[in-house]
Amino acid sequence: MTSKVSARTKAALVGTSLLALAGCQQLSLARAVAGYERTLDTYSQTDSTITDVTNTRHADGREAGLISAFFGLDSALPKRNTDRVACEGAGGADGMPVIFTDQVDIRTLEPGDFRVTTSSGAIGRVTCLTLAPADDPGELRTALLGGEYGSIDDQPVIVAIVGNVLSLDGTVNFKGARVAVTPLEDGPTLVWAEIVPESDWELGKPATRLPWGGGSRCPVGTKQVVRVTWGGGVTKPAGGSAGEAERALYQVTTRGVDGVVKSRAPFALADLDDGDNNHLLCLDTTDTVSAVSFPAGHLTDPRKDLNPATAYSLIND
Hints:
The chain has helices spanning about 5-25, 30-35, 80-85, 245-250, and strands at about 65-70, 95-100, 115-120, 125-130, 140-150, 155-160, 180, 190-195, 225-230, 250-255, 260-265, 270, 280-285, 290-295, 310-315. The chain is of the alpha+beta class. It has two domains: about 40-180, Immunoglobulin-like, CATH 2.60.40.1220; about 190-315, no CATH class. It has a seven-stranded mixed beta sheet, with no helix packed on it. A hairpin with a 5-residue loop joins strand 10 and strand 11. The longest helix has 17 residues, at about 5-25. The chain is globular.
């Protein structure tokens, strides 16, 4: 497998990474290049990834595809962070997080890989994209698209992958995947949950001070970590990251070795203060996790639409 990345893209990656380093000494150059700001070639409307990978199934048998696409903002991407992290001029554009069934290789992502179709049949224009702010270890499945691809009166209804987009491990190609778009007026829901491998826990690590930097980790003493992914970024209705009240509202269903099923709140909530669409549920049990749920009306998307009651089952995932 090979992929082609333009010189302009490489320069942008290095430049934004050095800016990140200047603002936060905790990040190494490798972390900044590979993990924080991933500014892509914002002018490429074609697929320049050259590959011989045609497999469309993950190792566990799941079809490689898209989990969700969320029409989160209509001509309202915030200028302050978007222009710096996604691409210059993206502030004020439409915003849509698109979530893959697995982590993706950033080198194979380009605006031209995505086709957004509206209810009228019009084809939107994706002008830039980024994996930030969802770029902590294990999170590289959410691409934030910026551009002009619909309105509240002619909303995007389908997102399709028309170019070669490869998984992070290089084993599957997402070309041909498609998913229906969640309408602008709908609130955010849980679209994914998974058990986080211990190698990615980083227990006790605080959030960075960067606007779209690394989120906080679970506290020392945690026995199991569950990552939940929302269709779009979520905050409290009054603004700000989720906290103790939201932790107590999460319910995790577990089954012990004795077969007893319990529902409990995580003892701590992490991956906070980084503006992304993920939370870490920190558990004090090693019982098997089967489902996660969250009640209606306590978190909002960037447009201030409240979440409905939502749940996700980990069984057979």
